Amino acid sequence: MMTEENKKVLDDLVYLAACAVNGQVPEKSRTDGMDLSLVYEAAQNHKLAAAAGMALESAGIRNEAFVQAVAKAMRKNALLDADRAELTRKLEEAGIWYMPLKGAILKDLYPRYGMREMADNDILVDAARAKDVGRIMQELGFEAEETGKGHHDEYRKPPVSNFEIHRMLFSGMDSHVFHEYYTGVEKRLIPDKEGSFGRHFSTDDLYLYLTAHEYKHYRHGGTGIRSLLDTYVFLKHYGNELDMAYVTAEAEKMGTADYEKKSRELALRLFSGEALTEAEQEMLAYYASSGTYGSYEQKVVNEINSFGGGFRGKLRFFRSRLFMPLEDIRYAYPVVYRHKILLPFLYVYRIIKGLTTRRGVTMADLKALKKTM
User: Which of 180, 155, 169 is nearest to 206 (CA)?
Assistant: First the structure.
């Protein structure tokens, strides 16, 4: 439950973000009543400080925290753009197909450079050439943080250049349905131009992917207000081009149709300044409580609720941690899945791992669980 103060801060942040993307100057009667220190704190939590800062700047308001946030966002975007351009040049030379994802695409839809803050570069590449991509990343001065696990490899280069090289769009651990839907996705991708190894989605398929990715976060640990702003900005650009019959039919296949409709309607009303329904206000409160990438505590709560909630849900949550569902084992431990005689050894291994190398995760589970009691 949000306090009245938190509601006002949220309203102020949404208002500034809406002004930024709609090219409107904030009204003095609104900005005079804002506690900018609180708005900045919320904006940082939702990665909207640059957008809010640009709105304030248009009204002639210079707040140092927001000024620095705008400058930082512009510098980081420039560095990520430069590194991404260098990487894609190398991929073209090596004949490896690739497709930038998420923020690398969305940022260019915002009215001003740097308005959409970037955390990292996400790029989908030919999984069969992942090792070649790894060698290219090292040639470009990146260090591998984690490779060969999950659905992407992570690379870092000081001071702020972070890359996630995706070998697939979703792993089976993210969602069995999403993983299967996007298996062989390269067949649906469109070349950027003749002879290029760059690829892109059709507008409809891009919207479906962005919605699926957002829903993954929403369903797990939650996702913040920026996700709604991304949806709004995307629809401002491409809303009239979308084949909604196709979008709805494909979303039904992935189980995201209800979420797509509700989040779309919420985003359009919220950043157009229209009144929200009671259900939309509740949905917004969930976004507001999640932060940009959600919270681990919310992830645990959502998992417990998926098991039916209450005491029984908590018992089933613990059981899933100790004894991973067979469908998850299929993706996380394929050898064990093929040779099920190894299952008892896997369960013992996971218990030992949970008490040693993954003790921090185990403690986080217990801490989050305690807050739900």
Answer: 169
Q: What is the pLDDT of residues 32-49, one digit of tens each?
A: 999 999 999 999 999 999
Domains of the chain and any CATH numbers: 1-62 (no CATH), 74-293 (3.30.460.40), 299-371 (no CATH)
Angle between helix 310-322 and 343-355 (nearest 10): 100
Signed CA dihedral, 49, 52, 54, 57: sign only? negative
Q: What whole-number distance in Å separates Cα of residue 171 and Cα of residue 173?
A: 5
Residue 116 structure tokens: 């959409």
Q: How many angstroms separate the CA atoms of 272 and 275, rounded?
A: 9
Taking Cα atoms as reference points, which of 254, 248, 252, 124 lies closest to residue 176? 254
Assess contact for 125 and 96: CB atoms under 8 A. yes
| Phi–psi pair at 337, nearest 5 degrees | -60, -40
Exposed (0-12), middle (13-18) or buried (19+): which is 187, by Cβ within 10 Å? exposed
Query: Model pTM?
Result: 0.83
Give pLDDT tens digits for 98-143: 999 999 999 999 999 999 999 899 999 999 999 999 999 999 999 9
